[in-house]
Design brief:
Elements: H1 2-17, E1 20-22, E2 28-29, E3 47-50, E4 53-56, E5 62-63, E6 66-68, E7 73-76, E8 86-88, E9 92-94, E10 97-99, E11 108-111, E12 115-117, E13 120-122, E14 125-129, E15 134-137, E16 146-150, E17 155-157, E18 161-164, E19 167-169, E20 177-180, E21 186-190, E22 207-208, E23 210-213, E24 217-220, E25 229-231, E26 235-238
Parallel strand pairs: 1-3, 2-4, 3-6, 4-7, 5-8, 6-9, 7-10, 8-11, 9-12, 10-13, 11-14, 12-15, 14-16, 15-17, 16-19, 17-20, 18-21, 19-22, 20-23, 21-24, 23-25, 24-26
């Protein structure tokens, strides 16, 4: 009986730790108490709702699940966090905007599980890092400059997807990572002038180290180079 009671207490403690924290409508820097209702800065164990304009400004900024509400914004303004992503340990749902503050203060996010994008997504870069496959879905274009996959089993398209000006960085041409597109879905890649291109990847290279498979359709702007991608059991259309 004593062991059973201890297990209940442990379960309640875990549930209590995974609380939901919502930003104020005024927003502010992620790392400051005044940004959050209740005055508590979120940690990697907390679910977060963005309900204002919140700035990723410190390398320790993290949460469990993240929701950006409609017409609300996650962005950045501290150039010192370039290369230090805001870490989302589970799912990210964007109904608002995930974007750079300007050309210098690039916003990077790191997501461990799935992404749903129903809003504006024009940040510098997004890294996916987990041990399963990540499902990406949503009804709006994904416009980050790059999408990088690390330590995971690739991506599954959970809906039709449109990447605008985004380069996929999965692996290399000898060790490709899967992007699964089931027959009912089309994944499109189109050019964009929204971003300043970096030097580490030619702006005409659509993807590196990606194996498209699953029976769906890949629709590619003819401006893109697809030489570093593999197309297994998909329909490739270049326009």
């Amino acid at each position: 009986m004593k062991k059973f009671i201890l297990l209940i207490i442990a379960a309640l403690s875990i549930n209590y730790a995974n609380s939901q924290i919502t930003s104020t409508s005024a927003g502010g820097n992620w790392s400051e108490t005044s940004t959050w209702i209740g005055g508590v800065v979120p940690t990697a164990n907390d679910d977060v709702v963005i309900d204002g304009t919140v700035y990723h400004n410190h390398k320790s900024d993290a949460c469990k699940n993240l929701i950006v509400n409609a017409e609300k914004i996650l962005t950045s303004r501290n150039s010192n966090i370039q290369g230090c992503p805001c870490k989302i340990k589970a799912d990210l749902v964007n109904n608002g905007s995930i974007k750079n503050a300007d050309d210098v203060n690039w916003l990077q996010v790191k997501v461990s599980k799935d992404i749903v994008n129903n809003g504006v997504w024009t940040n510098y870069g997004t890294s996916l890092s987990g041990y399963g496959a990540h499902i990406i879905s949503g009804n709006k274009p994904f416009g980050g400059y790059f999408l990088e996959v690390r330590l995971s089993k690739g991506i599954i398209a959970g809906s039709d997807l449109n990447f605008r000006g985004t380069t996929l960085l999965f692996g290399d041409q000898y060790d490709a990572i899967d992007f699964v597109i089931n027959p009912e879905y089309t994944v499109s890649f189109s050019n964009s002038d929204d971003h300043i291109k970096g030097d580490f990847m030619p702006p005409t290279n659509m993807a590196r180290g990606v194996r498209f498979k699953g029976g769906g359709t890949v629709l590619v702007d003819d401006k893109y180079n697809t030489d570093e991608s593999k197309f297994d059991d998909v329909t490739l259309i270049k326009e």
